[in-house]
Amino acid sequence: MARPIPLELQPRDPRAELRKRLEEAPVEHAEALLDSYELLGKLHEHGVFELLRGALGASDKLIETAVDAAKSDEAIRAIRNAIILGKILGAINPDVLQSVAVAVGETLGCYEKPIIEPPGLFSLMFQFSHKELRRSMALLNKFLESLGNQIKLRGGCK
Predict the structure, then answer these.
(1) Cα–Cα distance measured from residue 36 to residue 42, given in angstroms and rounded to the nearest whole number
(2) Sequence-distant (≥ 6) Cβ neighbours of residue 33 within 8 angstroms
(3) How sure is the predictor about 82, in pLDDT bands with cuts at 50, 70 and 90?
(4) Is 136 exposed, middle or buried (0-12, 13-18, 19+ CB in 10 A)?
């Protein structure tokens, strides 16, 4: 009759295995290990770990404070305004916005204070003969008209 083969497993020591793997780590990683030890030491010296432990210990209080701040009227308005500004930026044709950026740079982008003398009446009338000026004024007029309609619909500022 066949006899069973005895199986004797050595007890496993995970710490010894980790220590052995660390000792056998390639030399190319030794510098990275030393750098990480140095970084951990600097974090410890500057009290970062104490700060993190305190934050974790007071996490309920921190969350409660953040929720209270987020429930304020100012925070709600700020979030709504950020969403609306995102919609505004998404609605603007990038070519138009690029044109605005170039125009701002050309007129206001110099390092010194721009010196713009107010034009005389005849000079101003002559400027109206330029298509570019009339085109930009038409764009501003359309914007102001739309803004006035929206203010009228919403009842103005409260």
Answers:
(1) 10
(2) 25
(3) very high
(4) middle
Tokens of 129: 């003969």
Tens digits of per-residue pLDDT, 13-70? Answer: 888 888 887 777 766 677 887 888 899 999 999 999 899 888 888 888 888 888 888 8
Band of the pLDDT at 84, cuts 50, 70, 90? very high
114 touches 108 (CB < 8 A): yes
Nearest partner of 23 among 38, 33, 13, judged by Cα: 33
Tokens 């721009």 — which residue? Answer: 114
Tokens 């609605």 -> residue: 91
Task: Count CB atoms within 10 A of the CB of residue 30.
Answer: 10
